[in-house]
Structures are given as structure tokens and as C-alpha cells.
Design a protein that fits this description.
Dna Ligase, domain 1; globular; 2 domains; about 150 residues; alpha+beta; about 45% helix
């Protein structure tokens, strides 16, 4: 994962301004280690005494996406989430609370992807793999998953 200094260096080298809101959003991404929705960002910043309107958050997310600092994900709940681009990984998604956690798989999946591409004569650009289930907290709340 990129750290805040590395990201700031990248943005400075491109001549981008570092606004207080942009800096706060970047720090939030670095500290959370999970995909965040615009609402998560807005609520967290408000709780940190930095109220930011929805339009500003979306504008900053678009900016960071265009700068290839963050990427966008959308799971079954159709909520757009964002996270720092940090190498290829997948996600665990709770079907009850929609908590999303990052997970890295071993290299066997990469071999499988190459085999699929060869067998189907298909140029794979990227892939997405999510595991849907029940997180630890929801397993306690919803006893049927013991």
C-alpha cells in the first residue's frame, strides 16, 4: 500500500494542489484499510470536525480516480466504494452489514487466469473476485451461521 508521503509526492510531481479536504480524505483511506463509500468519508470527516458537503467529496473522489490514486468498486449492494490502488487483491463482503474486507490470494489464481485466457482465446484486462458471506459480528447476531 502506498503511504501518504508517496501519494503526496506523486500529486506534487503532477502539479496538483493539496487542499485540506484532499489531504484529510487521503489520510482516511490510508488509515482505514478497507473500501470506503462517499457517505463513509463524509460521516467520518464530519466526526473529525471537518464537515464537507457531498459534492466536494464526489469531486475529490473523481480527482483521485483520474490521478490513478484510488479505484472504484461496486458490490451487490450497488454502493460505490473506493480504496487506494495497492496491488491486486479481492474482497470479503458480509451479506448482512455490507462490511468489506480486503484479502490477498496466492498465485494459483494467476495461473488459472492465464489458463482461461489461453483456452478461451480471450485477452483478460482485469478481473474481480468477491466472496460473499457473513462476518464474525453478524455470525453472532444471526445465530444460524454457527
Amino acid at each position: 500500500m502506498k503511504d501518504i508521503t508517496e501519494i503526496l509526492t506523486i500529486l506534487q510531481s503532477r502539479g496538483c494542489r493539496l487542499t485540506p479536504v484532499r489531504y484529510a480524505i487521503l489520510k482516511l483511506f490510508i488509515s482505514k484499510h478497507e473500501p470506503l463509500s462517499s457517505r463513509n468519508i463524509q460521516e467520518t470527516l464530519a466526526s473529525q470536525k471537518m464537515p464537507v458537503n457531498k459534492t466536494t467529496v464526489y469531486r475529490e473522489l473523481d480527482f483521485l480516480k483520474n490521478q490513478k490514486i484510488i479505484e472504484e468498486f461496486q458490490f451487490n449492494d450497488r454502493i460505490k466504494r473506493y480504496e487506494i490502488i495497492s496491488g491486486h487483491h479481492h474482497h470479503l463482503v458480509c451479506i448482512y452489514c455490507n462490511k468489506v474486507e480486503c484479502v490477498v490470494l496466492d498465485q494459483d489464481l494467476e495461473k488459472q487466469e492465464k489458463k482461461i485466457a489461453k483456452d478461451k482465446n480471450f485477452k483478460i484486462i482485469n478481473h474481480s473476485l468477491e466472496f460473499y458471506g457473513v462476518c464474525r459480528k453478524c455470525q453472532i447476531t444471526h445465530k444460524r451461521y454457527d
